[in-house]
Write a structure and sequence with these properties.
The complex is a heterodimer. Chain A is mainly alpha-helical. Chain A has 13 helices and no strands. In chain B, the strands form 2 sheets. Chain B has an 8-stranded mixed β-sheet with strand order 6-7-8-3-9-10-12-11, with helices on both faces. The longest helix of chain B is centred in the middle third of the chain and has 18 residues, at about 215-230. Classes of the chains: A mainly alpha, B alpha/beta. Chain B: It comes from Streptomyces himalayensis subsp. himalayensis.
C-alpha cells in the first residue's frame, strides 16, 4: 500500500487508494474493449448498409460513423463521449446506446440482486447448518442440494422450474418483464424463477464455502473461549464463528459475482427478459459496435465496482485488513 | 492449607469490585470445587484412551492448587472436563461439584449459566484464544451482558475497569482495539479480564504463561496472584513449570499418565516428595547457577534439588559437569488401565507389589514428618523418603 501522510481515518485512506486503482483499471479496460472490438472480423459498414452495398454507400457510412479515422482518434472520440455519458448511437436501432443501456440495466441489476439475495440467504444458511450439524442428515441434505445446484445446467433448471411453478402450479410467471415501479407484485412474480435459476449455482458455491469456513472457525481456540464464557450456542455460532467465516464467503462471492453477470445472459434468454444479456447478444449478432462497446464497458465497470465493494466488505468484517498490520 | 511465603505482589491495579467472598457462599470450610473419581476416556476406532483415571481433589476458597505433570498426563483434559468443554465424544465419569452443584453430566444450557460466571478458564494460547474480528471491549463486555445483564454502556464501563484491574495501561484506548493490536502478554491479560469479569469462585489457568516470554510470564503470574488476594478467587493452575509452582501455589497435585500420584502442600512437596515420579520431576529442573544431580529414581547417589523458592540455600552444589537428570523410560500408553502402578516400569523402587496392584492415593504416614494433607499413590513412599534422608546425611 502507498505511504500516506498519517491519515486520520485509516479506512478513508484505504478507500482512496483503492479508488485510484479502480480508475487505472477502468482506463485499461476501455483500451482493451475498444481494441478488442475493432479486432473482430466483419465490417460494420457492411452490416449497416443492408441491401445497398455499393462502394459509395459503404464509404458514406464509414464517413458518417468515423470508421475511416485513425484508430487513436477513434479511441479518443470514444473516451471523450463516454465521459459525458454519450456512448454513441446504435447502428442497429439508430437510438443512443446510453438509452438502451439505461433501459436494460435495471432489469439485469434486479435479476442479479435477487439472485445474490437468494444465493446468500440459502448458501450461508445451509452452510452454517451443514457445519453445525456435521455428520447428521441435515449435512447430507445440504451437501446433496449443493451438488445438484452445481451440476444442473442453468437452461435445464429453468425449463423444469417453468414447467413446475409457472405451468403445472402457476404461482410464478414464465416470461416477460414488468418494471418494479409499475407493479411490484407482478414484477416479483416474473423475477423469482429467473433469480432462482441464476442464483442456484452461486448458492451451492456459497454453501460449500460457508460450511468449510464454519468448520474451520468452530474448531478455533476463540470458540473454546466463547464457550468457556458461558455464551449460548446461538451467540457462539452467530456472533463468533460466522463472523470469522464471512471473510472467506465474501471472497468467494466477489469472485462468483462475475459469473452471475455472464450467467444473466443465458437466464435472460430463457425467461425473455429485456436485460443486458439480451442487449449484448443482439449487439453481437448485428455487429453493433457502439452498443457492444457500451455494454462491455458497463459490465467491466460493474466488475470493478463489485471488487471494490468486496474489498470494503472485507475490511468491515476483518479489522486486520482495515487497520493494517499482521498479528504481532 | 499452608500459606506460601511468596513475595507480596505490589498493588499496581485499581477498581477492585466488591464481592470477593462469592466463594464462601456455602460454608466457610467447604471446598468450592470438589472433584471425585473423575475419569475421562476417548474412543477412537477400537481403542479407548484413558486420558484421566480416577482423579480427585478439593479446592478451598482462595486457594491456589497447582496441577503439574508432563505433556499428555491428563492435566488439561481434566480441566476441560471440569469446564464441560470436552467434545461429546469424551466419556466422563465421576463427580465435579462446584459450590455444591454437580457439573458432571450437566447439559450445555445449564453449564452455560455457570461457565464464565462461577467458574472461568484461561488458556495456554493467548494469540489465538481471542476472536480476531471483535474488539477487546466487546469480548469482555459480552460475558458481563450474558451473566450480569448489563447494558452495552455499563458493560463497556466495567470492561475498562477490568482492563485496569489486570494491569493494561490506557484501558480507555485499548478497549476499542482488536486482538492483533495487542502483544501476547496483553492478550493474556485480556483473557484474564474476561475470566474474572463476573468474579468467579474458581479460575482454571491452563498453562497461562507457557506461550509467553519469560519477562512477560512474571507479569501474568503477578496479576493472577493479586486477583487471588483481592478477589479471593481460587485458582487451579495447570503448569509444568515448577518455578511457577514454587512461586504462587499453596498446594500441588502431581499427575502421571492420567492418574494422580502425589498431592501435598507446596513446601512439603519440594522438601519431601514421596512419589519417585515427583522426585524425578523435581530433579529434572534446570536452574541457573545450580549444577544438576544425576537421575533420582534411576539409581543410587542421586541428589534431589529442592525448589529454588522453597529453599534457595540448599540448592548449591559444588561445580562440576553433570548431566541434568532424567527419568528413564517412556510414559506408558494410555490405552490400558493396568491394575498396577503406571510408573513401575520406570521406577528404581518397583517390586512385585508395584506391578501387581494399583496403589491407593493415600495419606502418607506421619512417621517421617509428613503433613496429613500429603497423599501419594505409591507402595513405597517411606523408602523414597528414607533414601532422600540418607543421601542428605551422607553429603
Amino acid at each position: 500500500m502507498m505511504k500516506l501522510p498519517a491519515p486520520r481515518n485509516p479506512m478513508a485512506a484505504y478507500l482512496l487508494t483503492r479508488l485510484r486503482q479502480c480508475v487505472i483499471t477502468l482506463i485499461l479496460v476501455s483500451v482493451v474493449v475498444f481494441a478488442g472490438i475493432r479486432a473482430l472480423p466483419g465490417d460494420p459498414a457492411l452490416a449497416l448498409a443492408g441491401e445497398e452495398r455499393s462502394p459509395e454507400a459503404l464509404a458514406a457510412i464509414r464517413a458518417e460513423y468515423g470508421l475511416d479515422d485513425n484508430i487513436v482518434i477513434q479511441y479518443g472520440r470514444f473516451v471523450g463521449h463516454a465521459l459525458t455519458g454519450d456512448l454513441g448511437t446504435s447502428s442497429r436501432t439508430g437510438l443512443p446506446v446510453s438509452d438502451a443501456i439505461a433501459e436494460a440495466l435495471p432489469v439485469t441489476l434486479e435479476l442479479a440482486a435477487l439472485s445474490l439475495l437468494f444465493a446468500v440467504v440459502l448458501g450461508i444458511g445451509a452452510g452454517v447448518v451443514a457445519a453445525v450439524r456435521r455428520g447428521r442428515p441435515e449435512e447430507w441434505l445440504a451437501n446433496a442440494v449443493a451438488l445438484l445446484g452445481l451440476s444442473v445446467p442453468t437452461f435445464w433448471l429453468g425449463i423444469v422450474l417453468v414447467l413446475g411453478f409457472a405451468i403445472a402450479v402457476p404461482v410464478f410467471a414464465a416470461s416477460g418483464y414488468v418494471p418494479f415501479g409499475t407493479d411490484p407484485l407482478d414484477n416479483l412474480r416474473r423475477m423469482v424463477l429467473p433469480a432462482v435459476v441464476l442464483g442456484s449455482g452461486l448458492a451451492a458455491v456459497v454453501m460449500r464455502q460457508t460450511r468449510a469456513a464454519m468448520l474451520d472457525s468452530l474448531s478455533a481456540d476463540y470458540i473454546r473461549t466463547a464457550r468457556a464464557k458461558g455464551l449460548s450456542r446461538r451467540e457462539v455460532i452467530g456472533g463468533h464463528a460466522l463472523r470469522n467465516s464471512l471473510v472467506t464467503v465474501v471472497t468467494v462471492l466477489g469472485l462468483q459475482l462475475g459469473h452471475l453477470i455472464s450467467g444473466a445472459v443465458v437466464t435472460e434468454q430463457i425467461f425473455v427478459l429485456p436485460g443486458f444479456g439480451k442487449l449484448t447478444i443482439d449487439a453481437v449478432f448485428t455487429r453493433d459496435y457502439a452498443t457492444l462497446q457500451g455494454v462491455v464497458l458497463c459490465t467491466s465497470a460493474a466488475y470493478i465496482l463489485i471488487n471494490l465493494l468486496v474489498d470494503v466488505a472485507y475490511s468491515a468484517i476483518d479489522p486486520r485488513i482495515r487497520l493494517g498490520g499482521a498479528a504481532r | 492449607m499452608s500459606t506460601p511465603d511468596a513475595p507480596e505482589t505490589p498493588d499496581t491495579t485499581a477498581g477492585v469490585p466488591a464481592g470477593a467472598a462469592t466463594a464462601a457462599a456455602v460454608a466457610p470450610d467447604a471446598p468450592v470445587l470438589s472433584v471425585r473419581d473423575l475419569s475421562v476416556s476417548f474412543r477412537s476406532g477400537d481403542r479407548t484412551v484413558h486420558a484421566v483415571d480416577h482423579l480427585s481433589y478439593d479446592l478451598a476458597a482462595g486457594e491456589v492448587l497447582a496441577v503439574v505433570g508432563e505433556s499428555g498426563c491428563g492435566k488439561s483434559v481434566a480441566a476441560m472436563a471440569v469446564m464441560g468443554l470436552l467434545p461429546p465424544t469424551a466419556g466422563i465419569t465421576g463427580s465435579i461439584r462446584l459450590a455444591g452443584r454437580e457439573l458432571a453430566g450437566a447439559g450445555d444450557k445449564e453449564l452455560g449459566r455457570v461457565r464464565g460466571k462461577d467458574i472461568a478458564m484461561i488458556f495456554q494460547e493467548p494469540m489465538t484464544s481471542l476472536n480476531p474480528v471483535l474488539t477487546v471491549g466487546r469480548q469482555i463486555g459480552e460475558v458481563l451482558r450474558r451473566h450480569q445483564g448489563l447494558t452495552k454502556k455499563q458493560a463497556r464501563a466495567r470492561a475498562v475497569e477490568l482492563l485496569d484491574l489486570v494491569g493494561i495501561p490506557a484501558p480507555r484506548q485499548r478497549i476499542d482495539e482488536y486482538p492483533h493490536q495487542l502483544s501476547g502478554g496483553m492478550r493474556q491479560r485480556v483473557m484474564i479480564a474476561v475470566a474474572v469479569a463476573c468474579d468467579p469462585a474458581v479460575l482454571i489457568a491452563d498453562e497461562p504463561t507457557t506461550a509467553l516470554d519469560v519477562t512477560v510470564q512474571a507479569g501474568i503470574l503477578e496479576v493472577l496472584q493479586s486477583l487471588r488476594e483481592r478477589l479471593g478467587t481460587a485458582v487451579v493452575l495447570i503448569t509444568h513449570d515448577l518455578g511457577v509452582v514454587a512461586d504462587i501455589a499453596d498446594r500441588v497435585l502431581v499427575m502421571y499418565a492420567g492418574r494422580p500420584v502425589e498431592q501435598a502442600p507446596v513446601h512439603e512437596l519440594f522438601e519431601g516428595p514421596r512419589h519417585p515420579y515427583t522426585r524425578g520431576l523435581l530433579g529434572a529442573v534446570l536452574r541457573p547457577g545450580v549444577v544438576a544431580g544425576r537421575g533420582v529414581a534411576a539409581g543410587p547417589g542421586a541428589v534431589l534439588e529442592p525448589g529454588v523458592a522453597a529453599a534457595p540455600g540448599a540448592a548449591l552444589r559444588p561445580a562440576g559437569k553433570r548431566r541434568l537428570p532424567e527419568i528413564p523410560g517412556l510414559v506408558p500408553s494410555l490405552d490400558e488401565q493396568p491394575d498396577a502402578c503406571t510408573f513401575a516400569p520406570r521406577c528404581a523402587f518397583a517390586d512385585d507389589q508395584c506391578t501387581s496392584g494399583r496403589p491407593g492415593f493415600k495419606a502418607v504416614a506421619a512417621d517421617v514428618g509428613a503433613d496429613a494433607a500429603h497423599r501419594a499413590a505409591c507402595w513405597h513412599p517411606h523408602d523414597v523418603a528414607l533414601q532422600r534422608i540418607n543421601q542428605e546425611a551422607g553429603q
